[in-house]
Amino acid sequence: MQADAGRPILSMKVDGGASENRLLMQLQSDILQIELVKSVAGESTSLGAESLAGLTLGIWQDRADLSSLWQEAERFIPLADEAALHQSHSLWHKAIERAQHWEIPNTVE
Q1: pTM higher than 0.70, yes or no?
Q2: Domain for residue 41, yes or no?
Q3: Is the pLDDT of residue 109 over 70?
Q4: In contact, 12 and 38? CB cutoff 8 Å
Q5: d(CA 36, CA 77)
Q6: Per the domain annotation, does 56 fall within a domain?
Q7: What span, in angstroms and rounded, lies between the C-alpha atoms of 13 and 17?
Q8: Contact 78, 54 (CB under 8 A)
Q9: What DSSP state is assigned to residue 68?
Q10: Number of domains forming the structure of the chain
């Protein structure tokens, strides 16, 4: 992601159903080695459509007005160190390799 962005990514805002899973969010933060910041609003898709409509109707003057409405619910900071991440990543690849080479015995005679 950082290569695509062309700059370091220090944090990422998260929302949606998966963001309700605290373990998943912590794992994501550890793997990505960035802060994840969860919004009070659980789903931002409908909020985005609502915001655009509000801008069009003049309810909000500009994007700064909308930004002031955003509220943080929770923050996840990376807890795993790089050595632990590297070991977990290596074990993950070993598990994938083993799962790919299972043989199912032929029980039909």
Answers
A1: no
A2: yes
A3: no
A4: no
A5: 7
A6: yes
A7: 14
A8: no
A9: T
A10: 1
